[in-house]
Amino acid sequence: MSKYRFNHSSIYIEGTDIPHNKLNITTSEDIHEAENILLEEAYNKLPKLIIKNVLNETYFINLHKKTFESLYNFAGVYRDVNMSKGDSQFCLAQYLHSESARIFKELEDENYLSDIKKKTLFAKRLAYYQGELITLHPFYELNGRVIRLFCDMLALKNGYRPIDYSGAIDNGAYIEASIECVQYANSSRLERIIFEGLRES
User: Fold this and answer.
1) Which of 11, 42, 135, 154 would be 67's cystine partner, CB 3.0–4.6 Å?
2) What is the pLDDT of residue 83?
3) DSSP one-letter string for 15-81
4) Domain that holds residue 36
5) 79: CATH
6) 151, 198 in Cβ contact below 8 A?
7) Is 104:60 a contact under the CB 8 Å cutoff?
8) What distance in Å separates the CA atoms of residue 135 and residue 89, rounded to the nearest whole number?
9) What is the DSSP letter of 82?
């Protein structure tokens, strides 16, 4: 059984939760290892990735593409099917592009959070955008990881270190916070996690 529900198509190898991939990997352990290696490579390039770059919608899409294109054909491609997980219904595919444009226009209007000097307000606004992107769930797979990578880039560009989510991920608090963002449009729990994980660089 796949972990996501689709309306009319699936990217997974039949009978598994493993996406079709360029390396013909067929086990969960190996696919996760391959994904983590690519993500680690992206984090190692993080300082270079943000220099002179505007962290807009195009950059967000290309971040997913460049990080995972060696593994997946769908890297950097917004989904065109409705997706849900458990009781969480992500943004309907028909509204995905307009909602994505709205989110990134808001972020642009806030000057990519660069005018915010107080850590409490920065955490609040970053949690809002992260929650909006979690609810958007624009890609078929690897949404959470690329969204956190993108938010780490926003943090780094604004004088912070990459956010430490480790405790919240280990104890399940991050998942619960994400569910609240999707089901209740409430990012307050995510805000606390981000605030606690923010450190000035």
Assistant:
1) 42
2) 93
3) TSSPBP-TT---SHHHHHHHHHHHHHHHHHTHHHHHTT---SHHHHHHHHHHHHTTT-TTTT-B--S
4) 5-197
5) 1.10.3290.10
6) no
7) yes
8) 8
9) -
